[in-house]
Amino acid sequence: MNAISESTGLAEAHDTVLQAIRYQHPDWVDEHGTCPNCDSYEQKLAELLVRFEPEEERAS
Question: So what's the pLDDT on residue 24?
Fold first, then answer.
């Protein structure tokens, strides 16, 4: 898998996760369409992804 398709796959997975959270928890979305809990989950996911990223990619 090349970097572009891997990146696209991660972006699609990210969007899918956020859509699922919003669908399952519509009460988390405020009147402005923002979702603070979604933001929290997104931050946790980003932290986990960095942990599992190959070292050579973290260094660049």
Answer: 94
